[in-house]
Q: What sequence folds into this?
């Protein structure tokens, strides 16, 4: 989904107060992580994911895989926290 810069700015503002709802730890990405992300996106639409593994390149790969599998849009990435948005079709 393509968002305008104004929409992304608005979503960044909304996400500022959010805490990460999904955390990727030392075991990396597992199927249960993707299920949790899908559930959280369906319920909240705008979530933060904390990736507490590896270096920057590894976190970039993990974020790219999460975006690809969840069909979400990356709103912002600050350090090891990524903000994702996916509109609920309902």
A:
């Amino acid at each position: 989904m393509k968002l305008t810069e104004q929409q992304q700015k608005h979503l960044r503002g909304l996400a500022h107060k959010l805490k990460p709802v999904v955390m990727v730890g030392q075991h990396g990405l597992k199927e249960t992580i993707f299920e949790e992300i899908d559930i959280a996106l369906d319920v909240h639409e705008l979530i933060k994911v904390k990736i507490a593994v590896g270096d920057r390149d590894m976190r970039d790969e993990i974020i790219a895989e999460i975006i690809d599998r969840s069909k979400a849009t990356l709103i912002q990435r600050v350090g090891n926290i990524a903000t994702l948005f996916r509109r609920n079709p309902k």
Summary: The helical segments are 5-15, 31-44, 56-70. The chain is about 45% helix and 20% strand.
